[in-house]
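Q: What structure does this chain adopt?
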Amino acid sequence: MTEFDSTVGRADRTNEQARAEGMRVRREVLSDAHVDRAEANTTEFTADFQDLISRYAWGEIWSRPGLDRRMRSAVTLTAMIAGGYWEEFEMHVRAAVRNGLTNDEIKEIVLQSAIYCSVPAANSAFKIAAKVLGD
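A:
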């Protein structure tokens, strides 16, 4: 087993490599248009955050081999529902479709979340998902 160095990421990659991989995965999952908007809206104040999510969320977590993107989308949708992160939930419904989840699978994820996250949270999720999936 390779030791994990949090200052470098996975032991075999530099921060720059993690960021490049993260940007590739981020674009594949969220779309070029979404990432281009996020990058265009980056300011000096938000630049470190954009770098963090590109390197860590997308370059280290979403690019790991342990789960496929469909599974990562299912987990992410549930987490967004649990946290009530509705803007992110909307974005990740679109990403889930890009990752191959069907409308019925997204519906089942929201139904499952009604039991474990709350009926009010699932109610909000259904409203948002219906809007996104109707687009």
